[in-house]
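Justification of computing resources. Each target in the renewal requires a structure prediction run like the one illustrated here; the chain below, 85 residues long, is used simply to show the kind of job we budget for.
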Amino acid sequence: MSADGGSISHLGDGLEETVRGATARLTTMQSESCKAISLLSWQEGQCLYDLSVDLNVYRAGRRNWLVELAASLPAAPTAHDAKAA
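Resulting structure tokens:
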């Protein structure tokens, strides 16, 4: 993460969301100059996911959009899929 200097505020740190049945953590960080990053993290099986956008999803009213975007990503392959390939 990069910031423009100064302090960074954590907004909505660790709020729980759900992505395809998995618990996800949504964290938003914003600098004094209003530059922001929102990060959604979750785990499916052995795969860890981090989806970030340069946007304060709370202020922009886009929290649901980020969660829906995460849910639309292809599911991680399972160990069974790897053996079949």
